Amino acid sequence: MSESSIKAQPNYTTLAHLKSVQVMGILNVTLDSFSDGGQFSSFDNALKQVELMITSGVDIIDIGGESTRPGAVDVSEKDEITRVIPLLKAIKSRFDIAVSIDTSKAGVMTEAIIHGANMINDVRALQNEGCLDVVAQSNVKVCLMHMQGMPRTMQENPHYNNVIEDIISFFVQRIESCVQKGIEKHRLILDPGFGFGKTLKHNYQMLADFGQFEKLNLPLLAGISRKSMLGNLLNRDVEQRLAGSLTAGIIAVQQGASIIRVHDVPETVDAIKILTAVARYKK
Ligand code: PT1
Questions:
Q1: Which atom of ligand 1 is nearest to the CA of 145?
Q2: Active site residue 141
Q3: Are the C-beta atoms of residues 249 and 218 closer than 8 Å to each other?
Q4: Which CATH superfamily is domain 3-278 in?
Q5: What's the mean pLDDT in 9-33?
Q6: Which of 50, 68, 137, 196 is least enclosed, having the fewest CB within 10 Å?
Q7: pLDDT in tens, 27-47
């Protein structure tokens, strides 16, 4: 290789970056995940899952009461509050752990903030009525995710001129709206939204060029765990996507992701420990 072809590039395999990477553990309380038993056992189950995640080294628990996977239908605000808030209160009273609430509804955000949520994770990037105001009047962190279309139909015909550039333009506009409303930049986290109105090709372009989002100078979140971009490539059911999930998560971390949102916390923590050890020994 000629000398001139060696470019100085940001290196996210450094010890400093890897030490700051946070694992966000997914806790679903949608109707589907609650349909396998009575309310009480489900609630206890969720708390046991939280305890396991904490023991395994999770940094943030992400509670979601609305399914946003492709084809999912809307949930009422009342139902979402009933599913999410009691669990948030129970976690906050029992454990010392950061909790994020995965919601797009201003009413759910309000309740979540009152009851001690540390972060709002919004796949609709605070575009719904009242959301900017609710977050502006708090001091929580907020994850702004990119989605093209809405969950029920978003996979029908996704189109971009340039997937990375289009998402960056969207982020620039959303950051501007947040700052205008008084949500300080230091509270923002960006997520390009793997699987949200993206073809297989778009998803892999995003993963290949994940480092491009670093231009926006904000922490990045990647949520790839068990998604169909892994399943469709590997031809594997959702329970058989662990190797794919770990590999894709690590690739995102090596390109600057600060938070990875995952189902398999112990395995993800192990993978990051290996990366960190390598960074320590690197000359
Ligand atoms: C995500 C995310 C999320 N994903 C953030 N929040 C989901 N910030 C929920 C599939 O293609 O990536 N980032 N909250 C889950 N949504 C999906 C989407 C699940 C697509 C599965 C797929 O399989």
A1: 8
A2: no
A3: no
A4: Dihydropteroate synthase-like (3.20.20.20)
A5: 83
A6: 137
A7: 988 665 444 444 556 889 999
